Amino acid sequence: MAKTIKIFLIDDEPNGLKTAELSNWVGQAIVIPRNKLKETKQRPECNKPAVYFLVGKENEEALLPTTYIGEAENLWNRLSTHDSSKDFWQTAVAFVSKDNNLTKAHVRYLESRCLALATQAKRYDLENDTESSLPSLPEADIAEMEEFLSNLKLLLAALGYPILQEIIAKGQNNIADPLFTCKGKAAMATGRMTNDGFVVYKGSTVSANISSAVTERNTKVIGKLLSSKYLEKRDDKLYIFVKDFMFNSPSAASDIILGNSTSGWKRWKTEGGKTLEEIYRK
Fold it and tell me: How many domains does the chain have?
């Protein structure tokens, strides 16, 4: 069943303070830009128990965005502490209960589950130092929190933060988006178009021979992929992806794979020989 998202712009700015809700759900999200934190001090939803995500980038050269996942008995108090102790974040996205039924144990449970899902998804770099152990909850409470988590995960991604969303697996065939292959003289990669970008799958190879047209860009991206342990050097001619990686576009992916300036819409092809362009644009 389709769910309706209701968003309320607290300060009438699309990228400002806002709350978001799903139809028929007791939970509520509040999105807080860091420069608006002071304005939330007296808001009721910001003085409740919450699980929250701090989102930003560790530095401009970072390959992935960064997140810190936490829980709080009083959201505003905890965020004000992070405002003076953590530099990287620009936005906080927090989840509270409209009926005030979330307890300290509940938000600790949600924090632990969110950390596990974010670690598995590998979509953001985690700022958290350690894993959080699951607190002991009654069976009925666990079922309730798992339902809360399912809606939290959906709403968080809908707000533009797919922190807990796993990349579509290579072997997942029961979806409309087919697999594509990009082949060069030595390199060969497999990927798929998704709602979030173009994913290149583990086991794909990357040419170490880079043309002058893309030398600076490719060298920088490959360096980041190596340091972030997405790529490993196989030999003098090739690198290999050891983890799935999401590119912003198919051309950004094929440029790296082939070591040249390319049109990914023409270079990525299905097993039957159809290009990405033929599948999605014609």
Answer: 2
Q: How far apart are the first and last CA of the chain?
A: 30
Q: What is the pLDDT of residue 63?
A: 87
Would you say residue 165 lies in a domain?
A: no
* Residue 159 pLDDT greater than 90, yes or no: yes
User: DSSP alpha helices (H): ranges in the chain?
Assistant: 75-85, 104-121, 139-158, 215-227, 250-258, 264-267, 276-280
The CA distance from 4 to 87, in Å, is 35
DSSP code per residue over 145-170: HHHHHHHHHHHHHHTT--TTPPPPPT
- Shared domain for 17 and 107, answered yes or no, is yes
- Write out the residue range of the structural domain in which residue 152 sits: 5-158
Of 221, 219, 224, 191, the C-alpha closest to 205 is 191
Count of C-beta atoms within a 10 Å radius of residue 39: 15
Answering whether pTM is above 0.85, one says: yes
